[in-house]
Amino acid sequence: MQKRKLGELEVSAIGMGCMGLSFGLGEAKSKQEGIALIRKAYEDGITFFDTAEAYGPYINEELVGEALKPIRDQVIIATKFGMISDIGINSRPENIRKVCEDSLKRLQTDYIDLFYQHRVDPNVPIEDVAGTIQELVDEGKVKYFGLSQASAITIRKAHQVFPVTAVQNQYSLWTREPEKDVLPVCEELGIGFVPWGPLGTGFLTGTINPDTTFDPKTDLRATFPRFTREAMVANMPLVNKIAEIAHKKQATSAQIALAWLLAQKDFIVPVPGIDKELYLADNIRSADVRLSTEDLNEIEVILASIEIEGERLSKELLDMDDQ
């Protein structure tokens, strides 16, 4: 697979979001299934794997650590600190250090390649967070610093203290907020951008329709306004248009959605959630889909003509975003 740069960090052009193997998007996979899929992803060219203490919590890091232990020096592991739903946001320096030590144990490694602040903590100056990461880098426990759901202002403040390597915000064909301020500041400062939810949490793939239901016990989408039946009915025209373009390009809808992201900037590396081998092969092939200027213009016209209905996340999660 092609490689891309997140700052100075080289990774595969498509990463693997591992959360759904353990948490949040339906029934969890068995440990054996999860390990097999992560190792298959590596065999097929993916070198960038995304997890977090919050996923489970904790169990996803354990899964990723066990799966990647035999090939640890061949892969890039990104994990996150500072946000667990039942506990809240906490980026106090002592907590960052604790999470780092605990994550190292769960990941069965002695260093974290990319350590993201999962959500910006309004009670802790970002300068203090960046300073703590710098100390962990100096100690060899962390290689690179990242921010998630951060604003352009916060990115600038953090970067002045210690270089931010990557920003991971939600971004896709139906969630384009980063284009206003965050992508420009990343380009200006040489920071990589990692879209999470690049397939619209599954909706843009065409495998979800208004009759699809989500179990509130296992699937976060049950709480997302954009995944109510009414919103899905209203948003289906976008899915249908993506499918038309995919047909013309002899590709799948997922491949078009990922190829569109890759075409926006050369420092963008999507991390689609992958929990099936079929999805793995589909997502990997997106790196070879080429969208022409005409294709991109056609997509832009489509997006301008469709108004997306429903907030992208629950109010609880939206309230955690950096404003």
In short:
This protein has 323 residues and is an alpha/beta fold. Helix content is 39%, strand content 13%.
Describe this structure in words.
The chain is α/β, with parallel strands linked by helices. The protein contains eleven helices and eleven strands. The strands form three sheets. A seven-stranded parallel β-sheet has the order 3-4-5-8-9-10-11, with helices on one face. Strands 1-2 form a two-stranded antiparallel ribbon. Helix 1 (31-43) packs across helix 2 (59-68). The protein is globular. The model has no long low-confidence stretch (mean pLDDT 97).
Chart the SSEs and their pairings.
Layout: E1 3-6, E2 9-12, E3 16-17, H1 31-43, E4 48-50, H2 59-68, E5 76-81, E6 83-84, E7 88-89, H3 93-106, E8 112-117, H4 126-138, E9 142-148, H5 152-161, E10 164-168, H6 182-189, E11 192-193, H7 229-248, H8 253-264, H9 277-285, H10 293-305, H11 315-318
Parallel strand pairs: 3-4, 4-5, 5-8, 8-9, 9-10, 10-11
Antiparallel strand pairs: 1-2, 6-7
Helix pairs in contact: 1-2, 4-5, 5-6, 7-8, 7-10
